[in-house]
Amino acid sequence: MDKAEILKSIESLAQKNVNGMYLNDFLLTWDKSEDEIAATLQTAEILRALRQNNVSSRVFETGLAISIFRDQSTRTRFSFASACNLLGLAIQELDEEKSQVAHGETVRETANMISFLTEVIGIRDDIYIGEGHTHMQEVARAVSQGHQEGVLPQRPTLVNLQCDIDHPTQTMSDALHLINVFGGIEKLKGKKIAMAWAYSPSYGKPLSVPQGIIGLMTRYGMDVVLAHPDGYSLMPEVLEIAQKNSGQSGGSFSQVTRMAEAFEDADIVYPKSWAPFSVMQERTRLLQDGDRKGLQALEKRCLEINKNHIDWECTEMLMKSTRQGQALYMHCLPADISGVSCQSGEVEASVFERYRIPQYNQAGYKPYIIAAMIFLSKFEKPAEKLSELLHNTKPRVHK
Amino acid sequence: MDKAEILKSIESLAQKNVNGMYLNDFLLTWDKSEDEIAATLQTAEILRALRQNNVSSRVFETGLAISIFRDQSTRTRFSFASACNLLGLAIQELDEEKSQVAHGETVRETANMISFLTEVIGIRDDIYIGEGHTHMQEVARAVSQGHQEGVLPQRPTLVNLQCDIDHPTQTMSDALHLINVFGGIEKLKGKKIAMAWAYSPSYGKPLSVPQGIIGLMTRYGMDVVLAHPDGYSLMPEVLEIAQKNSGQSGGSFSQVTRMAEAFEDADIVYPKSWAPFSVMQERTRLLQDGDRKGLQALEKRCLEINKNHIDWECTEMLMKSTRQGQALYMHCLPADISGVSCQSGEVEASVFERYRIPQYNQAGYKPYIIAAMIFLSKFEKPAEKLSELLHNTKPRVHK
Amino acid sequence: MDKAEILKSIESLAQKNVNGMYLNDFLLTWDKSEDEIAATLQTAEILRALRQNNVSSRVFETGLAISIFRDQSTRTRFSFASACNLLGLAIQELDEEKSQVAHGETVRETANMISFLTEVIGIRDDIYIGEGHTHMQEVARAVSQGHQEGVLPQRPTLVNLQCDIDHPTQTMSDALHLINVFGGIEKLKGKKIAMAWAYSPSYGKPLSVPQGIIGLMTRYGMDVVLAHPDGYSLMPEVLEIAQKNSGQSGGSFSQVTRMAEAFEDADIVYPKSWAPFSVMQERTRLLQDGDRKGLQALEKRCLEINKNHIDWECTEMLMKSTRQGQALYMHCLPADISGVSCQSGEVEASVFERYRIPQYNQAGYKPYIIAAMIFLSKFEKPAEKLSELLHNTKPRVHK
How does DSSP classify residue B390? Predict the structure, then answer.
């Protein structure tokens, strides 16, 4: 986008109702209205375009952004750091092991103690079913209360960097990728997307990506097909949301039990491993009990169960059955690539390789998605603010 | 404070003699004059008010602030990060395990090597009696020498983020809290404050908070009463300082051996656990010798000794005996709350809960106290500089 | 330098051909032309002088700099942080253990995933012979490809923070130190520098410093003498480079087998321990095989071999044999000092102590060297840009 196009996009953004996002968190995509989701995608594109035009979007002279990672992360960690830096915030990571949190401090107390000068808190907490989202809500309540009671001079915005239920920074990036590949949000209508389980010799992968995908993509009038072996079902409440969304958007949501059926004539395929729901639940219980032997046994059993479905692989053969053999392959990365990162995995190496660049592009939207989530929470009139940035044209790099 | 009030406060700050703080460290409150302590508290309030008025106090375009944590920390870690960020400095943590320090490098060398472009060094070193403050002095000497010898283009300012003797960023925040609760520094005169030992099922808590409190609060004409069981005495040199201060300020300093006596008619109570001095000394020796068995035995013995004083708990009953039953309860957090974070602890849950918000406020001053310490060390005419910031009115957030 | 002198230096910088550095990495000094090396040294001095004159060199409003340390580091870690901060970039460290890298992600993928908004990547990877430089090249290829394919909006610049072959940020700082001590780059001609192995009771020190020194110092018409016991030879390809360089520069490069011979009439001595090449190669193999027993045996054997050369120590006696007994003693720090950090080490305590300040100065150039490397890669017309900074005179500290 050149500056004229950016201006046009800002003008269209100004038409959207984003009042609900101001001073609000981003935890689940289905908590957001159509306008809010659309505005987030659009703001992300505008921030990206500003940067490409070397226009600084540093809106904070000072301010902290705090990240809390309860699980490993590369992409999301660097995306969050990039997003915050793009707006002028400095990152401070809360390492719970180096802090008093390990000493039994309550969530409420910690949330307030780290937030006195904090603008944003990003949290990844995706390991335990029933915990991640609950924890984020607890943090949100704590800082809301703290702000109301005058403890915090501002209420930090929470951004869900992956919980047990949803992974909105991922799925919104995925959506932006689809919009750019297919040429517009309206072009997604009627497209078939296959969210399919795939085999991986690993254990305990979160359910939040497939859940987030069916929860978001059903909003665009797409035909969303979920495929997984018996025992790998997703949370019932998310399935309901997908069903409801598809009804409202004029698309469909269906579940099948064979990968091939899901891939048939699909425009987009998203084959990805996740853990069986029941295993994740049992794991949470065992972890809470500190039952190491039980966990080892569970892991062994889970890997055994996985092995029964080693044929759930995104092969060239399967890809041929998609729309004109040319479905867009997607993955949130890193993928388990057969013969590369493991013996048998989620995807055949040649398929992965053919879609390497699109996948990297897909990942590349995440910093801007996160920056947009923060931006829309911090500025009451985001379109006006973006317009100011564009017109003042302070360079990002002083070339 | 609105801008007119800020200006008035700056004008009053200009009357104080703060020459001794310029290019100087902040290690112990009793090394600072009355004017210097008052100026620090006032500068903290001005910086807080500037931020509330969305005035940027970014005085550094670039510059590093280094933190060295030899003990766990949440509050102080984030307070230091917030303070440095508020002034425009970027945090870089020295993780001694990932550095050559682990290879036997001397303090002198490390201090210089990390300071070439460094404006501030914040250190927490509170575990070993006889070591923390000594270490900070060694770092201070090293960077002074380095600066004199032309190795360092500037001398970084040291801020004591808790040592074995004092915890000035905590106690100064406590003082600011008292000033705000009681309506002015002059209102503290004649108030009775009880710094009391309290039971905790933990081991090895530093003595620096009670020491810092009696060393600072005796300067305001308060009646400072220190209470602890036999064997939990503080460092003799700090007791002397408290005695001397109270004489000069027209207050009093006394020691009692029962919690109830300290609480009687108190305006403020600060019940908090700490380790017996002799145990801390023995612990230092055993740690230096690497005597693991000895340490385990000592910990066991210490916890046994602690248990003899399980009745040293801040109860509702005791609170009733304070001035009109309404003394201000203070804690540096996290507290050991009976029935919440432990079975029996420092404070009854209902007392803690009633004072939760005041305590959070108490903690919330710390970022500004630290920023004030840095500010007064970096600017020869701090009032002029603050006035400039106020008049130029660069916004912190570009709203 | 005052501002007039800075301007003069900028004018002379403008005469140098640095086109090859624009959008390029800094991996090995011998990949750079004479003009490029000279321009880096000069830019470092200009950036240092700007800071001394309180002129901000913040050229980035926002942007990330990523550091990857596969080995311990203090000096280089803080130098890199300082350099990036000086230009306005925020540091984000890639901790490979906390990232998906540990999950078998490829270098190509990780390199792209961390680079979407990244301006610089600094890498220390010096442990395995045959790996560090190769890894850096792989990262460089990955981000080049990513940029070409439109994945990355900019290509991040790579800075070698020490590999298995070279340690350019160290040796360039060393060169700047020599230039300042001897009064100009042209004064180095004809000077004798002894790069000598020295005994240390440690194991596995990289070869990159001695290799970097002979690869760089042979470019200035110096008489470079390399001394080491049998079995401690350097990589043959670097010896060839040194030989070639010395021929071109009108200096000499020779190898001797006694420390005393190298020190004889030397103007500069650089006594430093390193591991035997063959041990490093075997170590790489054993590490890759995960052969712990083999590694322990190798370490033991290596330390035994080292002990045969305990007399390779930089003593006062040896120093007397240098030019007028006053050769400049250099070390990249930390040094193994006899009787201080170890029983017998690389250098006698009194020698080290006499040269403590010069050594600290030597280390102090590194932040500016790194900043210069980044600067020259990011600005097509660096002299113009520096001139702008000088003339606009935005203060670094708003005093």
Answer: H
Q: How far apart are the first and last CA of chain C?
A: 20
Interface test with B, best of A85, A117, A120 (most B CBs within 10 A): A117
Contact of C100 with C85, CB cutoff 8 Å: no
Residue B288 is predicted with a pLDDT of 81
d(C-alpha A267, C-alpha B56), whole Å: 51
- Residue B363 and residue A149 in contact, taking contact as beta carbons nearer than 8 Å: no
HEC secondary structure over C269-332: EEEECCCCHHHHHHHHHHHHHCCHHHHHHHHHHHHHHHHCCCCCCECHHHHHCCHHHCCEECCC
Residue spans of beta strands (DSSP E) within B198-321: 223-227, 252-256, 268-272
CATH of domain B3-165+366-392: 3.40.50.1370
Whole-structure pTM value: 0.97
d(Cα A174, Cα B207) in Å, to the nearest integer?
54
pLDDT on residue C30: 98
Q: Which of C189, C167, C331 is CA-nearest to residue C267?
A: C189
Burial A239-251 (b: 16+ CB within 10 A, else e): bebbbebbeebeb
Residue C33 is given by DSSP the state -
Peptide bond into A206 cis (omega under 30): no
Query: Tens of pLDDT along B81-92?
Result: 999 999 999 999
- Among left, alpha and beta (phi > 0; psi -120 to 50; other), residue B393 is left
Asked if A396 lies within 8 A of C117 by C-beta distance, the reply is no
CATH code matching the domain that covers A170-363, chosen among 3.40.50.920, 2.60.40.1120, 2.40.10.10, 3.40.50.1370: 3.40.50.1370
Q: Write down the pLDDT at residue A393.
A: 84
The three-class DSSP label of residue B161 is coil
First-to-last alpha carbon distance for chain A, in angstroms, is 20
Contact status of B109 with chain C (Cβ, < 8 Å): yes
For residues B6-26, average pLDDT: 97
Q: Is B263 helix (H, G, I), strand (E, B) or coil?
A: helix
Judged by CB atoms closer than 8 Å, whether chains meet at B396 and A63 is answered as yes
C348: tokens are: 């006698």
Helices assigned H by DSSP within A253-355: 259-263, 277-289, 292-307, 316-320, 349-354
Return the closest-CA partner of residue A232 out of A274, A281, A286.
A274
Start-to-end CA distance of chain B, whole Å, equals: 20
**A54 CB within 8 Å of a chain C CB:** no
Q: Write down the pLDDT at residue B173.
A: 98
CATH 3.30.390.10 is held by the domain B169-363: no
Is A64 close to B85, i.e. CB distance below 8 A?
yes
Contacts of C81 (CB under 8 A, 6+ apart): B64, B90, B92, C67, C91
Separation between Cα atoms, residue C324 and residue C327, nearest integer Å: 7
Which tens digits make up the pLDDT trace of C121-159? 999 999 888 889 999 999 999 999 999 999 999 999 999
**Residue A98 in this model has a pLDDT that exceeds 80:** no
Report d(CA A352, CA A359) in Å as an integer. Answer: 9
**How distant is the Cα of C355 from the closest Cα of chain A, in angstroms?**
38
SS3 C370: helix
CA nearest to C363, candidates A147, B150, B27, B45: B150
For residue A394, the model assigns a pLDDT of: 92
Tell me the CATH number of domain A3-166+366-392, given options 3.40.50.720, 3.20.20.140, 3.40.50.1370, 3.30.70.2970: 3.40.50.1370
Cα separation, C129 vs A143, in Å, equals: 51
- Asked, colleague to colleague, whether B3-165+366-392 and B169-363 share their fold, the answer is yes
State how far the Cα of A381 lies from the Cα of A395, in Å rounded to an integer: 22
CA nearest to C168, candidates C378, C376, C373, C358: C373
